[in-house]
From TrEMBL:
Residues 1-25 form the signal peptide. This is Peroxidase. Its cofactor is Ca(2+); heme b. Keywords: Biological rhythms, Calcium, Disulfide bond, Glycoprotein, Heme, Hydrogen peroxide, Iron, Metal-binding, Oxidoreductase, Peroxidase, Secreted, Signal. It comes from Citrus clementina. Residues 32-329 form the Plant heme peroxidase family profile domain. Disulfide bonds join C42-C121, C75-C80, C127-C325, C206-C233. Removal of H(2)O(2), oxidation of toxic reductants, biosynthesis and degradation of lignin, suberization, auxin catabolism, response to environmental stresses such as wounding, pathogen attack and oxidative stress. These functions might be dependent on each isozyme/isoform in each plant tissue. Belongs to the peroxidase family. Classical plant (class III) peroxidase subfamily. It catalyses: 2 a phenolic donor + H2O2 = 2 a phenolic radical donor + 2 H2O.
Amino acid sequence: MGTKAVFLLLALLSFSAVSLRSALAENEEDPGLVMNFYKDTCPQAEDIIKEQVKLLYKRHKNTAFSWLRNIFHDCAVQSCDASLLLDSTRKTLSEKEMDRSFGMRNFRYIENIKEAVERECPGVVSCADILVLSGRDGVVALGGPYIPLKTGRRDGRKSRAEILEQYLPDHNDSMSVVLERFAAIGIDAPGLVALLGSHSVGRTHCVKLVHRLYPEVDPALNPDHVPHMLHKCPDAIPDPKAVQYVRNDRGTPMVLDNNYYRNILDSKGLMMVDHQLATDKRTRPYVKKMAKSQDYFFKEFSRAITILSENNPLTGTKGEIRKVCNLANKLHDKS
Ligand code: HEM
Ligand SMILES: *[C@@H]1O[C@H](CO)[C@@H](O)[C@H](O)[C@H]1NC(C)=O
Protein backbone atom coordinates (compact mmCIF):
# COMPACT_ATOMS: atom_id res chain seq x y z
CA MET A 1 0.00 0.00 0.00
CA GLY A 2 1.39 3.45 -0.92
CA THR A 3 1.56 6.36 1.55
CA LYS A 4 -1.24 8.02 -0.31
CA ALA A 5 -3.52 5.02 0.12
CA VAL A 6 -2.73 4.73 3.84
CA PHE A 7 -3.43 8.39 4.26
CA LEU A 8 -6.72 8.06 2.45
CA LEU A 9 -7.70 5.06 4.57
CA LEU A 10 -6.88 6.91 7.80
CA ALA A 11 -8.81 9.95 6.67
CA LEU A 12 -11.75 7.74 5.82
CA LEU A 13 -11.64 5.96 9.18
CA SER A 14 -11.45 9.14 11.23
CA PHE A 15 -14.18 10.73 9.15
CA SER A 16 -16.54 7.84 9.78
CA ALA A 17 -15.64 7.85 13.48
CA VAL A 18 -16.54 11.53 13.67
CA SER A 19 -19.81 11.09 11.85
CA LEU A 20 -20.63 8.08 14.01
CA ARG A 21 -19.96 10.09 17.13
CA SER A 22 -22.08 13.02 15.99
CA ALA A 23 -24.88 10.65 15.05
CA LEU A 24 -24.72 9.25 18.57
CA ALA A 25 -24.71 12.71 20.12
CA GLU A 26 -27.73 13.64 18.06
CA ASN A 27 -29.41 10.52 19.31
CA GLU A 28 -28.66 11.43 22.88
CA GLU A 29 -30.21 14.84 22.41
CA ASP A 30 -33.21 13.50 20.56
CA PRO A 31 -34.24 9.99 21.50
CA GLY A 32 -37.59 10.67 19.79
CA LEU A 33 -40.62 9.35 21.62
CA VAL A 34 -39.80 6.92 24.45
CA MET A 35 -41.57 5.27 27.35
CA ASN A 36 -41.48 7.43 30.46
CA PHE A 37 -39.61 10.32 28.83
CA TYR A 38 -39.89 12.40 32.01
CA LYS A 39 -38.41 9.77 34.35
CA ASP A 40 -35.43 12.00 35.24
CA THR A 41 -36.85 15.48 34.65
CA CYS A 42 -40.29 15.05 36.20
CA PRO A 43 -40.79 11.51 37.49
CA GLN A 44 -44.22 12.31 38.94
CA ALA A 45 -45.58 13.70 35.62
CA GLU A 46 -47.67 10.71 34.53
CA ASP A 47 -49.05 10.18 38.05
CA ILE A 48 -50.04 13.83 38.38
CA ILE A 49 -51.88 13.66 35.06
CA LYS A 50 -53.61 10.43 36.07
CA GLU A 51 -54.65 11.92 39.42
CA GLN A 52 -55.99 15.11 37.79
CA VAL A 53 -57.92 13.11 35.20
CA LYS A 54 -59.57 11.12 38.00
CA LEU A 55 -60.47 14.26 39.96
CA LEU A 56 -61.79 16.18 36.96
CA TYR A 57 -63.67 13.18 35.62
CA LYS A 58 -65.47 12.78 38.93
CA ARG A 59 -66.76 16.34 38.68
CA HIS A 60 -67.30 16.63 34.93
CA LYS A 61 -67.90 13.24 33.36
CA ASN A 62 -68.15 14.50 29.81
CA THR A 63 -64.65 15.93 29.88
CA ALA A 64 -63.42 12.36 29.24
CA PHE A 65 -65.11 12.46 25.82
CA SER A 66 -63.23 15.65 25.04
CA TRP A 67 -59.86 14.24 26.07
CA LEU A 68 -60.38 11.27 23.77
CA ARG A 69 -61.59 13.38 20.86
CA ASN A 70 -58.59 15.71 21.37
CA ILE A 71 -56.19 12.92 20.42
CA PHE A 72 -57.86 12.61 17.03
CA HIS A 73 -58.18 16.32 16.36
CA ASP A 74 -54.63 17.13 17.41
CA CYS A 75 -52.67 14.11 16.18
CA ALA A 76 -54.43 13.55 12.86
CA VAL A 77 -53.74 17.13 11.80
CA GLN A 78 -50.07 17.04 10.76
CA SER A 79 -48.61 16.26 14.17
CA CYS A 80 -49.37 15.63 17.85
CA ASP A 81 -48.15 19.11 18.73
CA ALA A 82 -51.05 20.52 20.79
CA SER A 83 -51.78 23.00 17.99
CA LEU A 84 -55.43 22.16 18.65
CA LEU A 85 -55.24 23.94 22.00
CA LEU A 86 -53.94 27.28 20.72
CA ASP A 87 -56.21 30.31 20.69
CA SER A 88 -56.62 32.48 17.62
CA THR A 89 -54.23 35.39 17.41
CA ARG A 90 -54.62 38.76 15.76
CA LYS A 91 -53.24 37.27 12.57
CA THR A 92 -54.44 33.68 12.51
CA LEU A 93 -57.63 31.77 13.15
CA SER A 94 -57.04 28.67 15.26
CA GLU A 95 -58.07 25.10 14.50
CA LYS A 96 -60.62 24.95 17.27
CA GLU A 97 -62.68 27.73 15.68
CA MET A 98 -63.36 25.72 12.53
CA ASP A 99 -66.52 23.79 11.69
CA ARG A 100 -64.56 20.50 11.75
CA SER A 101 -63.96 21.19 15.47
CA PHE A 102 -67.65 21.78 16.10
CA GLY A 103 -68.75 20.78 19.58
CA MET A 104 -65.24 20.49 21.02
CA ARG A 105 -65.36 21.50 24.65
CA ASN A 106 -63.70 21.36 28.06
CA PHE A 107 -60.37 22.83 26.98
CA ARG A 108 -60.06 24.53 30.35
CA TYR A 109 -59.64 21.19 32.09
CA ILE A 110 -56.48 20.58 30.06
CA GLU A 111 -55.22 23.87 31.51
CA ASN A 112 -56.06 22.57 35.01
CA ILE A 113 -53.91 19.51 34.42
CA LYS A 114 -51.12 21.62 32.96
CA GLU A 115 -51.21 23.90 36.04
CA ALA A 116 -50.95 20.91 38.37
CA VAL A 117 -47.94 19.60 36.41
CA GLU A 118 -46.33 23.06 36.27
CA ARG A 119 -46.55 23.36 40.07
CA GLU A 120 -44.30 20.31 40.38
CA CYS A 121 -42.07 20.68 37.34
CA PRO A 122 -42.25 24.10 35.69
CA GLY A 123 -41.43 24.23 32.01
CA VAL A 124 -40.75 20.52 31.55
CA VAL A 125 -43.86 18.67 30.39
CA SER A 126 -45.39 19.56 27.02
CA CYS A 127 -49.05 20.27 26.42
CA ALA A 128 -48.84 17.76 23.56
CA ASP A 129 -47.93 14.97 26.02
CA ILE A 130 -50.58 16.15 28.50
CA LEU A 131 -53.17 16.06 25.71
CA VAL A 132 -52.25 12.50 24.71
CA LEU A 133 -51.92 11.15 28.27
CA SER A 134 -55.17 12.73 29.46
CA GLY A 135 -56.86 11.04 26.47
CA ARG A 136 -55.24 7.75 27.45
CA ASP A 137 -56.33 8.08 31.09
CA GLY A 138 -59.77 9.32 30.01
CA VAL A 139 -60.24 6.08 28.06
CA VAL A 140 -59.65 4.13 31.29
CA ALA A 141 -62.20 6.32 33.14
CA LEU A 142 -64.71 5.43 30.40
CA GLY A 143 -64.14 1.71 30.93
CA GLY A 144 -61.79 1.28 27.98
CA PRO A 145 -58.36 -0.37 27.92
CA TYR A 146 -55.20 1.02 29.52
CA ILE A 147 -52.80 1.86 26.70
CA PRO A 148 -49.08 2.30 27.51
CA LEU A 149 -47.91 5.28 25.45
CA LYS A 150 -44.60 6.95 24.75
CA THR A 151 -43.85 10.57 25.63
CA GLY A 152 -41.40 13.25 24.58
CA ARG A 153 -43.65 15.27 22.27
CA ARG A 154 -42.99 18.99 22.12
CA ASP A 155 -45.45 21.79 21.44
CA GLY A 156 -45.92 23.52 18.11
CA ARG A 157 -45.96 27.29 17.91
CA LYS A 158 -48.78 27.65 15.38
CA SER A 159 -52.32 26.54 14.75
CA ARG A 160 -53.38 26.54 11.11
CA ALA A 161 -57.13 26.49 10.66
CA GLU A 162 -56.84 26.45 6.89
CA ILE A 163 -55.26 22.97 6.74
CA LEU A 164 -57.86 21.26 8.93
CA GLU A 165 -60.10 20.01 6.13
CA GLN A 166 -57.16 18.35 4.40
CA TYR A 167 -56.70 16.06 7.37
CA LEU A 168 -60.02 15.62 9.20
CA PRO A 169 -62.84 13.96 7.28
CA ASP A 170 -66.35 15.43 7.49
CA HIS A 171 -69.31 13.62 9.08
CA ASN A 172 -70.73 12.83 5.63
CA ASP A 173 -67.55 12.03 3.66
CA SER A 174 -67.42 8.79 1.69
CA MET A 175 -65.70 5.75 3.19
CA SER A 176 -63.07 6.01 0.44
CA VAL A 177 -62.10 9.49 1.63
CA VAL A 178 -62.12 8.39 5.27
CA LEU A 179 -59.99 5.29 4.60
CA GLU A 180 -57.55 7.37 2.58
CA ARG A 181 -57.11 10.00 5.29
CA PHE A 182 -56.42 7.38 7.94
CA ALA A 183 -54.13 5.36 5.65
CA ALA A 184 -52.06 8.51 5.19
CA ILE A 185 -51.13 8.38 8.87
CA GLY A 186 -50.55 4.62 8.89
CA ILE A 187 -53.94 3.50 10.17
CA ASP A 188 -55.49 0.56 8.31
CA ALA A 189 -59.16 -0.48 8.00
CA PRO A 190 -59.41 -2.39 11.31
CA GLY A 191 -57.61 0.50 13.04
CA LEU A 192 -60.11 2.98 11.61
CA VAL A 193 -63.05 0.79 12.60
CA ALA A 194 -61.69 0.57 16.15
CA LEU A 195 -61.06 4.33 16.46
CA LEU A 196 -64.58 5.18 15.33
CA GLY A 197 -65.69 3.06 18.29
CA SER A 198 -65.01 6.32 20.17
CA HIS A 199 -68.47 7.30 18.93
CA SER A 200 -69.71 4.91 21.58
CA VAL A 201 -69.56 7.86 23.98
CA GLY A 202 -70.57 11.51 23.84
CA ARG A 203 -72.97 13.33 21.61
CA THR A 204 -73.64 14.67 18.14
CA HIS A 205 -75.36 18.02 17.66
CA CYS A 206 -78.42 18.25 15.46
CA VAL A 207 -76.65 20.43 12.88
CA LYS A 208 -74.63 17.34 11.90
CA LEU A 209 -77.74 15.13 11.71
CA VAL A 210 -80.65 17.10 10.31
CA HIS A 211 -79.78 16.24 6.70
CA ARG A 212 -80.63 12.63 7.61
CA LEU A 213 -84.05 13.66 8.97
CA TYR A 214 -85.27 16.53 6.77
CA PRO A 215 -86.85 17.08 4.31
CA GLU A 216 -87.19 13.29 4.32
CA VAL A 217 -85.97 10.71 6.76
CA ASP A 218 -82.99 8.79 5.36
CA PRO A 219 -84.47 5.34 4.53
CA ALA A 220 -81.19 3.78 5.68
CA LEU A 221 -81.97 4.78 9.29
CA ASN A 222 -83.58 2.18 11.53
CA PRO A 223 -87.25 3.30 11.82
CA ASP A 224 -87.16 2.42 15.54
CA HIS A 225 -84.45 5.03 16.09
CA VAL A 226 -86.10 7.81 14.08
CA PRO A 227 -88.72 9.02 16.61
CA HIS A 228 -85.99 9.57 19.20
CA MET A 229 -83.84 11.51 16.74
CA LEU A 230 -86.82 13.62 15.63
CA HIS A 231 -87.70 14.29 19.24
CA LYS A 232 -84.16 15.49 19.98
CA CYS A 233 -83.84 17.40 16.71
CA PRO A 234 -87.31 18.85 16.09
CA ASP A 235 -86.22 21.56 13.63
CA ALA A 236 -84.87 21.16 10.12
CA ILE A 237 -82.67 24.17 10.84
CA PRO A 238 -81.60 23.84 14.46
CA ASP A 239 -81.67 26.96 16.58
CA PRO A 240 -77.97 27.76 16.96
CA LYS A 241 -78.55 29.01 20.51
CA ALA A 242 -80.35 25.91 21.74
CA VAL A 243 -77.95 23.08 22.54
CA GLN A 244 -79.68 20.28 20.69
CA TYR A 245 -78.00 16.94 20.32
CA VAL A 246 -78.45 13.17 20.27
CA ARG A 247 -76.33 10.82 22.36
CA ASN A 248 -74.06 8.71 20.19
CA ASP A 249 -74.90 5.49 22.01
CA ARG A 250 -78.24 5.59 23.78
CA GLY A 251 -77.63 2.22 25.42
CA THR A 252 -74.35 2.94 27.24
CA PRO A 253 -73.58 6.62 26.58
CA MET A 254 -70.88 6.87 29.25
CA VAL A 255 -68.99 3.68 28.46
CA LEU A 256 -66.41 3.06 25.78
CA ASP A 257 -67.58 -0.37 24.68
CA ASN A 258 -68.46 -2.35 21.58
CA ASN A 259 -72.16 -1.46 21.77
CA TYR A 260 -71.40 1.10 19.04
CA TYR A 261 -70.81 -1.72 16.55
CA ARG A 262 -74.10 -3.41 17.40
CA ASN A 263 -75.82 -0.03 16.96
CA ILE A 264 -74.37 0.65 13.55
CA LEU A 265 -75.10 -2.90 12.36
CA ASP A 266 -78.65 -2.19 13.48
CA SER A 267 -78.69 1.03 11.35
CA LYS A 268 -78.70 3.23 14.42
CA GLY A 269 -75.46 5.00 13.55
CA LEU A 270 -76.02 8.75 13.76
CA MET A 271 -73.57 10.14 11.24
CA MET A 272 -73.18 9.02 7.65
CA VAL A 273 -69.63 7.87 8.42
CA ASP A 274 -70.91 5.67 11.25
CA HIS A 275 -73.55 4.16 8.99
CA GLN A 276 -71.12 3.58 6.13
CA LEU A 277 -68.64 1.88 8.43
CA ALA A 278 -71.20 -0.89 8.91
CA THR A 279 -72.19 -1.14 5.24
CA ASP A 280 -68.97 -0.65 3.26
CA LYS A 281 -67.45 -4.00 2.34
CA ARG A 282 -63.95 -2.81 3.28
CA THR A 283 -64.94 -2.11 6.89
CA ARG A 284 -68.01 -4.26 7.60
CA PRO A 285 -66.09 -7.46 8.44
CA TYR A 286 -64.21 -5.67 11.23
CA VAL A 287 -67.42 -4.04 12.49
CA LYS A 288 -68.96 -7.50 12.82
CA LYS A 289 -65.90 -8.86 14.57
CA MET A 290 -65.78 -5.97 17.05
CA ALA A 291 -69.52 -6.25 17.71
CA LYS A 292 -68.86 -9.84 18.78
CA SER A 293 -65.65 -9.35 20.69
CA GLN A 294 -64.89 -6.50 23.07
CA ASP A 295 -61.37 -7.94 23.42
CA TYR A 296 -60.74 -7.64 19.71
CA PHE A 297 -62.14 -4.08 19.74
CA PHE A 298 -59.87 -3.10 22.65
CA LYS A 299 -56.82 -4.72 21.06
CA GLU A 300 -57.31 -2.89 17.77
CA PHE A 301 -58.27 0.33 19.55
CA SER A 302 -55.05 0.28 21.58
CA ARG A 303 -52.96 -0.40 18.50
CA ALA A 304 -54.61 2.41 16.51
CA ILE A 305 -54.45 4.98 19.34
CA THR A 306 -50.74 4.20 19.64
CA ILE A 307 -50.15 4.86 15.93
CA LEU A 308 -52.29 8.01 16.02
CA SER A 309 -50.50 9.34 19.11
CA GLU A 310 -47.11 8.88 17.46
CA ASN A 311 -48.02 10.74 14.28
CA ASN A 312 -45.15 12.97 13.25
CA PRO A 313 -44.26 14.40 16.67
CA LEU A 314 -41.96 17.34 17.34
CA THR A 315 -39.08 15.97 19.43
CA GLY A 316 -35.58 16.91 20.53
CA THR A 317 -35.05 20.63 20.03
CA LYS A 318 -38.03 21.20 17.72
CA GLY A 319 -40.97 23.26 18.97
CA GLU A 320 -41.13 24.37 22.59
CA ILE A 321 -42.57 23.47 25.99
CA ARG A 322 -45.49 25.83 26.39
CA LYS A 323 -46.07 27.58 29.70
CA VAL A 324 -49.84 27.53 29.22
CA CYS A 325 -51.57 25.37 26.66
CA ASN A 326 -53.64 27.97 24.84
CA LEU A 327 -50.74 30.32 24.02
CA ALA A 328 -47.38 29.95 22.31
CA ASN A 329 -44.61 31.15 24.65
CA LYS A 330 -43.83 34.14 22.46
CA LEU A 331 -47.34 35.47 23.14
CA HIS A 332 -47.40 34.37 26.76
CA ASP A 333 -44.19 36.28 27.56
CA LYS A 334 -45.67 39.44 26.03
CA SER A 335 -48.85 39.33 28.09
C1 HEM B 1 -64.15 9.92 10.06
C2 HEM B 1 -63.74 10.29 11.22
C3 HEM B 1 -64.56 11.09 12.20
C4 HEM B 1 -65.54 12.02 11.97
C5 HEM B 1 -66.09 12.51 10.65
C6 HEM B 1 -65.99 12.49 13.26
C7 HEM B 1 -66.96 13.43 13.47
C8 HEM B 1 -67.51 13.75 14.69
C9 HEM B 1 -68.61 14.66 14.91
C10 HEM B 1 -69.30 15.48 13.81
C11 HEM B 1 -68.91 14.64 16.23
C12 HEM B 1 -70.05 15.41 16.93
C13 HEM B 1 -69.57 16.68 17.55
C14 HEM B 1 -70.71 17.45 18.15
O1 HEM B 1 -71.74 17.62 17.48
O2 HEM B 1 -70.57 17.91 19.32
C15 HEM B 1 -68.01 13.73 16.86
C16 HEM B 1 -68.00 13.43 18.21
C17 HEM B 1 -67.01 12.69 18.83
N1 HEM B 1 -65.92 12.12 18.21
FE1 HEM B 1 -65.63 11.92 16.24
N2 HEM B 1 -65.28 11.83 14.23
C18 HEM B 1 -64.40 10.98 13.62
C19 HEM B 1 -63.47 10.18 14.25
C20 HEM B 1 -63.22 10.18 15.60
C21 HEM B 1 -62.08 9.56 16.24
C22 HEM B 1 -60.97 8.83 15.49
C23 HEM B 1 -62.21 9.79 17.58
C24 HEM B 1 -61.30 9.40 18.70
C25 HEM B 1 -60.14 8.81 18.59
C26 HEM B 1 -63.44 10.53 17.77
C27 HEM B 1 -63.96 10.88 19.00
C28 HEM B 1 -65.16 11.52 19.18
C29 HEM B 1 -65.80 11.70 20.48
C30 HEM B 1 -65.29 11.17 21.82
C31 HEM B 1 -66.96 12.44 20.27
C32 HEM B 1 -67.97 12.93 21.33
C33 HEM B 1 -67.55 14.32 21.76
C34 HEM B 1 -68.40 14.97 22.82
O3 HEM B 1 -69.41 14.42 23.26
O4 HEM B 1 -68.03 16.08 23.23
N3 HEM B 1 -64.02 10.76 16.56
N4 HEM B 1 -67.15 13.20 15.90
C1 LIG C 1 -71.83 17.46 4.23
O1 LIG C 1 -72.52 18.25 5.16
C2 LIG C 1 -72.21 19.62 5.13
C3 LIG C 1 -72.97 20.29 6.27
O2 LIG C 1 -72.49 19.83 7.49
C4 LIG C 1 -72.57 20.18 3.75
O3 LIG C 1 -72.20 21.55 3.67
C5 LIG C 1 -71.82 19.40 2.68
O4 LIG C 1 -72.22 19.83 1.40
C6 LIG C 1 -72.10 17.91 2.81
N1 LIG C 1 -71.22 17.17 1.90
C7 LIG C 1 -71.62 16.12 1.19
C8 LIG C 1 -70.55 15.41 0.41
O5 LIG C 1 -72.79 15.76 1.15
